[in-house]
Amino acid sequence: MPSPTAKPIRILIADDHPLLREGVQIVIEGQTDMEVVGQAATGIEAVALYRDLHPDLLLIDLQMPQLDGVGAIREIRAEFPEARIIVLTTYSGDARALQAMRAGAAGYLLKSSLRRELLDAIRSVHNGGKHLNAEVASQIAQHIGDRGLSPRECEVLQLAAAGNSNKQIAAKLALSEDTIKGHMKSIFSKLDAGLSP
């Protein structure tokens, strides 16, 4: 649990559905270590608010008016390479996930799994980790097979696809959580390089 003296994680929510933004804000505001600092309804607004607010983390939908999520992620990451971004979407397809990851997203959550995964994903990505929804990880694993991944990386990806957190994967493989984070970083890097857009 976070220490009471730690600064809360400052979060910007970007989604064109007001009800989803409000619902996510309610979930986040129930946490002592997080706060919502702004909401955007379009991709262009998300980029402008990111510039103004410098949040610790951005939650963004892929399907948005004026500028889609991938375009907004690219613009933000071009200007702020250290930006930590999690995609919230209804799209589970591996191609969309890979586009978002290539653009610079560190997490990919399906809206259908938000209640379960959202808070863990925010904390993980804020701490420099990656978070990939299990259903999406499974599709990616099937899509690329084991091309370019080491046997250990395949094992880690399969455990992630089964819904295990980095901590759970570390326990199952008798490795440190930092080692698992290293494997995940390598997997993401190989996924980025190994597949065409």
Main β sheet profile? 6 strands, parallel
**CATH homologous superfamily caption:** Response regulator
Number of domains: 1
DSSP strand count: 6
Structural class: alpha/beta
Helix content: 40-55%
**What portion of the residues fall into strands of 2 or more residues?**
5-15%
Helical stretch count? 9
Q: In the CATH classification, which architecture applies?
A: 3-Layer(aba) Sandwich
Rounded average pLDDT:
83
Shape: globular
Task: Summarize this entry quickly.
The modification 4-aspartylphosphate is found at residue 61. With 197 residues, this protein is of the alpha/beta class.
Structure commentary:
Pfam families: GerE (PF00196), Response_reg (PF00072). Residues 10-126 form the Response regulatory domain. Keywords: DNA-binding, Phosphoprotein. The chain contains nine helices and six strands, in the order βαβαβαβαβαβαααα. With 197 residues, the protein is an alpha/beta fold. It has a single domain, classed as Rossmann fold. A six-stranded parallel sheet has the order 2-1-3-4-5-6, with helices on both faces. α4 (94-103) packs across α6, α6 packs antiparallel against α7 (151-161) and α8 (166-173) packs across α9 (177-194). The chain is globular and about 45 Å long. It starts with 8 loop residues before the first strand and ends with a helix. Residues 193-197 have low confidence and may be disordered.
